[in-house]
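Async update (no meeting this week)

Hi team, since we skipped the sync, here's where things stand on the single-chain job. The sequence we agreed to prioritize is pasted below, unchanged from the tracker. I ran it this morning and attached the output directly underneath so nobody has to dig for it. Comments welcome in thread, and please keep replies under the output.
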Amino acid sequence: MVLIPAGTFLMGRENREGWSPMADPQQFDDELPPHEVYVDAFYIDKYEVTNRQFKEFVDATGYVTDAEDGGSSWVMVPADQAETPVLETDIGWKLVEGATWYAPEGPGSNITDRMNHPVVHVTWNDANAYAKWAGKRLPTEAEWERAARGGTRTNWFWSDYVDNAGKYANWWNEHRTATDIPEDRFDGFYNTAPVGSLKPNSYGLYDTAGNVAEWVADWYQYDYFNTSTRDNPKGPVTGAEKVIKGGFWYLCECYIRPANREPRETIRADHGLGFRLALDAK
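Output:
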């Protein structure tokens, strides 16, 4: 784990250059207004929780994930097999029976050669169960964003521009159907990447942009930033969905910014949802 010092940072989205030409900033207005937040010192995992770590938990406890219990999960498949293709890519969504954390593409797939990849097909409930077993907790949204920014105020932790993104983030360029993509935007991974494969931010944290989106502790509220507290905000008291942060290996640059926040039901599982954990600094 890495110690993130106590301090303030600007949380949310500022109006900056560098957005993708396809981006509609109004789609991300739940990141407004940008506001100063103070967070106490805390520890956070250097890497996303891996298949190896999750297997240790399952072996020790016999835990059954929500995807296993429900019998299916959402998988990214070639576009011609997809129920819902992703715009401008060669992939899309399909609900696959038997897709689980240990069979990420469904029956016949396995994680034998992916033990150092982030675990996927885990719900918020699964992540929280693992956290309790490990003696840790899910980070708050504010903690996660402070850590992911690495002390920056830019669109991405490396700059205001998506140039060189392939050195820092596992994202969708390997799946784009456009032919004029600069080489510095390719990360070299078709699916998830082993944790720590790309460059870290200035706090030494890996994969805070792309690879898998990460569950945090907070309930989601669209306009929460209008009323959130300045010091150690922990999200609304209740809600219908939890917040995910960090973006996915299969989506564009808009979603891998540290400010991006999205809602997901606590029982949602898919091919790009994982987590990392935090601890209070005492």
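Quick observations from my side:
The mean pLDDT is 95.
Residues 131 and 137 are 5 Å apart (CA to CA).
Reply here if anything looks off.
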